[in-house]
Amino acid sequence: MNASLPSVDQYRIVAICLGNICRSPMAEAVLRSRVAEAGLDGLVAVDSAGTGSWHVGHEPDRRAMRALRERGYDIAHTARRVDPGEIDATGLVVAMDRWNLADLRDLVGDSSALSRIHLMRSFDPNLTHLPEDDGRLDVPDPYYGTLDDFQSVLDMIEIAASGVIDQARLDLAL
Ligand code: 4NP
Fold first, then answer.
1. pLDDT tier at 9 (50, 70, 90 boundaries)?
2. 5 falls in which pLDDT band (50, 70, 90)?
3. With left for phi above 0 and alpha for psi between -120 and 50, is residue 72 left, alpha or beta?
4. How far, rounded to the nearest angstrom, does the alpha carbon of residue 12 sit from its chain's CA centroid?
5. How confident is the model at residue 44, as a pLDDT?
6. What is the pTM of this model?
7. Is 51 in the pocket of ligand 1 (CB under 6 A)?
8. Is residue 165 within 8 Å of residue 15, measured between CB atoms?
9. What SS3 class is residue 5?
10. What's the pLDDT tens digit per position in 98-117?
11. Ligand 1 center from residue 32 Cα (angstroms)
12. Ligand 1 centroid vs 12 CA: distance in angstroms?
């Protein structure tokens, strides 16, 4: 077990974007499904949050829900803003883009939680060679885009999700 992990009953994975209505609820739905497929229900909890507060209390964007449902995922999430304190109780924080990552780092300061904050696409096996400031690691914000943009966000999340689950297994020494 990773020594810097919080001592909590469940290993938490939290997906973070700006509004918590598009990318991170999609990541939450995909990761929760992968956790269940991996037989890790009960051991691993998945949640999402935003760094901004404009959409707190809202349901996910309709295009996000449609893209998810078309691929068989369930989503029931109410947007919320990330609470800096929760990061200390989180095993793995997956930020959708460089700005979310920078905002999260500012929020946690120099706590040991810093080492558990990563970009979602850094877990894409085809992209592990890229430095984290390379824009190709961003899951781009689809809010001002089309349903196609939401579908390509979902592609990116699905590809990276297996690596996120592998990291959780490693941290849990499974
Ligand atoms: P998300 O997308 O960060 O993927 O949830 C956004 C949703 C809303 C806004 C920005 C990004 N907004 O500016 O309202």
1. confident
2. confident
3. left
4. 11
5. 97
6. 0.96
7. no
8. no
9. coil
10. 999 999 999 999 888 999 99
11. 21
12. 23
Tokens coding 64 = 């996000």
Return the pLDDT at 4.
Answer: 64
Six token digits for residue 57: 């209390």
Residue 1 confidence (pLDDT) above 60: no
Query: Which long-range contacts link 56-61 to residues 24+ away (Cβ below 8 Å)?
Result: 56/20, 56/80, 56/81, 58/21, 59/21, 60/21, 60/22, 60/25, 60/26, 61/21, 61/22, 61/143, 61/150
E strand or H helix that includes residue 101: helix 98-108
Give Cβ neighbours of residue 17 (< 8 Å, ≥ 6 apart): 23, 24, 27, 48, 50, 51, 95, 96, 97, 100, 139, 141
**HEC sequence for 32-80:** HHHHHHCCCCCCEEEEEEECCCCCCCCCCCHHHHHHHHHCCCCCCCCCC
> Residue of the nearest CA to atom 13 in ligand 1?
19
| Residue from 17, 53, 75, 121 whose mutation best tests the ligand 1 pocket (most atoms within 8 A of CB) | 17
Using a pLDDT cut of 70, give the percent of the chain over it.
Answer: 97
* Structure tokens belonging to residue 150: 């939401």
Tokens of 94: 């997956």
Nearest to 86 by CA among 54, 59, 51, 135: 51
